[in-house]
Queue: 3 jobs
Job 1
Amino acid sequence: MARIAHLSDLHFGEATPALVASLGADIREAVPDVIAVSGDLTRRASRVEFSAALAFLSSLETPLLMVPGNHDIPSQDLWTRLYDPLGRWRSVSPAFPLTVLETKGLRLVGLDTVSRAQWHLDWSAGAISGNRRQQLARVLGEGAVLVCHHPLRHAVWAVGRRPPRHAERTIDLLTTHRVRAVLCGHLHRAEMTRLGPGGPAQIIAPSAFSERGGGANGWNLVVLEDDALTVETRECVGGIWTARTLSAV
Ligand SMILES: [Fe+2]
Ligand SMILES: [Fe+2]
């Protein structure tokens, strides 16, 4: 059995110290085997925000896999965005397009889906290039769990949001390799869906600390045991934590 604490959209820069402390206590109590962070550690990709995020995540003293989100590359400094987008990210983690962490029989694969620029105005949308899919194919294995920032398919309620470029080809790849689940964020609202027949479950975590998006703050506890996959969304409202089981919609 493997217990994954799935955190997303921490957006340090918006986090209050009380909620940071409360979330840390709730995660420690759940005793996860690994922490997966699906991007947007910061609000504006500043060094101060990155160092606050790293201090919090390190304090949990649990094996950690994290990938960047669209807020983790500069949005104002166009030169840096285009030519060294993950320069500040490297102050907390090596900037690999793919990261692999194996623990308790579980293979977690982190994929960077952030895009510097696109041929449309929504530069927050991601992309998964052919080159990156080829790299991904080499490290996927049956039962692997993918961690990336952008959902590969968006819910009906996510009006106006674009999935990352080449998301459908990536879903085909994940289905072929019998990937078990995709852990993602970006939409700031918890949800679980099935990415087609025989495809992986797509599990979105709520935003840990940001109030943007309208959902409650929280995180997901993902438990994998043999063929069973259960997801408990833990939400904090008014300082009180509640848990609800997330079912596929
Ligand atoms: Fe976000
Ligand atoms: Fe995002």
Job 2
Amino acid sequence: MSGGPHVAAGALGVDDRASAPRCLGAVSGAAGGPTVVITGGLHGNEPAGMHAAREVLAELLPRRSVLRGKVVAFGGNLGALERGVRFVSRDLNRGWHTPDLERLRAAPEHALSTEDQEQRDLHRAFLALERERSRLVFLDLHTTSGPTAPFVCFSDTVANRALACALSVNVVLGLEKSVDASMLSWASARGHLGVSFEAGQHDDPGAVRRHVGAVWLFLVAVGALDAVHVPDEPAHLAALAPGAGKRALVVEVRHRHVVGLDDEFDMLPGFKGFDAIEAGQIVARDRRGPVRAPEAGLLLMPRYQGQGEDGFFVVREVACAPRGVVV
Ligand SMILES: [Zn+2]
């Protein structure tokens, strides 16, 4: 992007909104580096990623002389963010099939739902970046309704595995296969790299700190910045490090509990992400009665919010995948 290091909202040809602009800002450095695309708030009850993206951009601006490439950040579901809900009519992190996106591009404005418009805005912005012909690398920032150790998930390619391992948090394999057409699955299908980072519970003050740390470490991992130029790198490493006596895990998804609209799904209280569970253990209730874990493993993303079709996941450690080794 030409015209200076800082690019105001709207410069990508997307709509401005007074309360929350789509483009949160951008910082450009030397030519030849990647374009790092940060998205925050794709779910409207997860504003921590947007706060973190703004903070990093502000600190990156005076360091633009040592930046290779560009960093640009977008707000996700602006309508849902204003309301403080996960989504208004549908999950914005689903439905990123190319045919659906082409339908949205061609549809008249009045025929679009709130999320249709949000998705069309984002899609247009990404296509505009593609036309700049730099290598695109996505970092999609999320939080969860229940407490959890931070983790990273991604479309499973060798290059994405290497990026994911650079963040030194738990790695979850196979999550993208169990949900329908996430934004990153679109990016991967277009040949771009990218990972999703889950920083912890929505209202955990530490979530913003972990997002900030993840963004800085990610910039180093993709070659946009040398570690020596990261402000207070030890603090970011510490924010993402497993607790005392713990180690980062590599796990794979074994089961996804899908919640139907009329299920009256109610997770039992007290679960955290990566809690050990037994086969047959009651973990939730719905209108049919107790909901049991189908097998032993670790619980991931127990749903403690009223929206979303993912009730919980069961994951299991992959013993043959040592960290740092791309398998
Ligand atoms: Zn999310």
Job 3
Amino acid sequence: MLVYIHVPFCRTRCRYCAFHSTALGRGVNPASSRLVRDYVDTLLLELAHWADIHGGAEIQTVFWGGGTPSLLPPRIVGIVLERLARYFNLVGEAEITLEANPESLRARAWAAEYRAAGVNRLSIGIQTLDDTVLRMIGRSHKGGDSLHAAFAAREAGFANISLDMMWGLPGQGVRQWLQTLKDAVRMEPDHISSYGLTLEPGTALERASGEGRVVLPPERDQSIMFMEGAAFLEANGYLHYEISNFARMGFQCRHNLGYWEGQDYLGLGPSATSTIAGRRWTNPADHKAWKDKARLGSLDENAEALTVHARALEMLMLRLRTARGLRLKDWRNITGRNLLADSRKLVQAMHENDLVRIRHGYLSLTRSGMLVSNTILLNLFERADAALTPDGPGASKILAESLCGP
Ligand code: SF4
């Protein structure tokens, strides 16, 4: 089983972000401290509840995401990990990731304390190293903080460091993005996540873009950023193993690989989703509603049972995001159908246009295909959905959840 822990706090809100989190503001204030304390108490309660049901289950990975998990003091992270180990079978070689903002690691002691608390992988959200662009997207750190953070993490003994980066940002040019990648590679991370900016509805950046107050790079430049960026990273020893993820050999994120392979996962914290034994539920995003349900032990009362149809379509959407692709035999085993035969004309056209490849029984996207993955996945999804039982429950929801660009 995989465990995801959502930490719903940030210092300030970034202008592009649609994740669930509350801005605590700078400095310490009593209301924020109370809220964080209450969050930790509820998290421990939620953990104890699931221990009663799934206690002893093997846990291969733990991922602290958010929000900004590095706002939690290392001591708290250590307490939660210690409880996890006590209630479940947290395997010795478990991958334990914590997302950190660069400014949180300014004080070197915290990196070392997270390591001592049991975290063995840090994912540092640097986004870009350009201060003007960082300001424009509302990040509260500077490029220099990222260099310090990566250095502090290595000094603290982290042997597995990932950098989170973004391209297609307002004010960013192709040359500047490629230079940012070069500078990032000089920091010698083991893993790089490189996401294209999406203008999420309701965010400040989406409004500003709609009103013409910020301008994104032209589409052609964005394509070059993705294609040349990926080629540069591969040339520097980073395997392009998923549309937005690159890793040195052996450093692929095991937690995310687990999601894409369809392993069970337990989500803790407000807005976290869980899928266990074919049932899926999502915790309320609202703190009080989450707390009430955790107290009553009713977090999964509205769980949806995933049908074979829904699971198959989800497998299609997730595996095709990976460089390895979808094993056609797995599809046949689950659905009893031949995907290539059901989508023959479409697959043939995509193959002729170098968007997909079929090799050793796997269907996968080429790099050009990854660039237009949303369109490809949408088309394949529709063909596959039609070939299976029409109107399968959950199908449209899966489509909406799975479609996110490179
Ligand atoms: S720090 Fe991360 S979670 Fe928080 S607002 Fe920024 S992007 Fe969103």
